[in-house]
Amino acid sequence: MHTDNAHDLASFKQSDMRSLSSETNILALTQQTHKLHFEFVPLKRSLKFMAQGQSICITNKIKTHQRAQQFIFSKPINLFLGRRLYQFSDLSSQGINEPISLAELFVQYPQRRLIVSDQISYGDKLDQQITKLPEQNKIVRRGASHVQGILDMFSERRGEYALFYPLEMSARQWQESTVSYTVAGIEPYLLGRLMCVNNPETRQFIKKVNKQIDTLNQDGALLRAHLKYYHSDFHQDVTRFVTAEFLAPH
Asked: Which of 117, 130, 159, 189 could form a disulfide bond with 139, CB atoms 3.0-4.6 angstroms apart?
């Protein structure tokens, strides 16, 4: 089992539920943990191993159309409210209107830059917007530990903008010094799943995991795990989204 999040790796190895990501995955894998070996592996290396046919699964992956052609996915394990565009509040926001078009933003402010990671998908629609941006308006953060890496680069003001989930920012002490914006065309939430090589072994594994996920949804354990980590301001939306997605056929 691969993860490119060092904090999650420590949680998985110690069965320590310290974040929404780690808690939901531990709950989903609780019947399988004695059989699993967790490793910290950057996504690009994981994909290389998977292309060689190794029986690998990766945690917290978005099910895009392209990926669905190559890999198999579990049912949803966690739900992250959609990314927002963050900037420090002392940076001028004159003329910026929500929802923001990234293309229009950088026409208006051509000298500013967006910090992005080359290790992850931001979702189909946001990936398309980022790809179309001029290279001079992007700072690409390469390498593993992409979440902490982007947070560190943003805190150091290496770029003017970064895209974060509300959960990622809630763990920092920047709330008073940053402002955030909704981005045009972006889904209100993203679903994290296990993404696995498609072979008989992993198909059987995913079948067992999905059965455990069904049990968790029936007794409300996954919803309770989400509400534990989201601020109460988000509870109504999170409850509505989790109920709609996790109880739907997949």
From this structure: 159
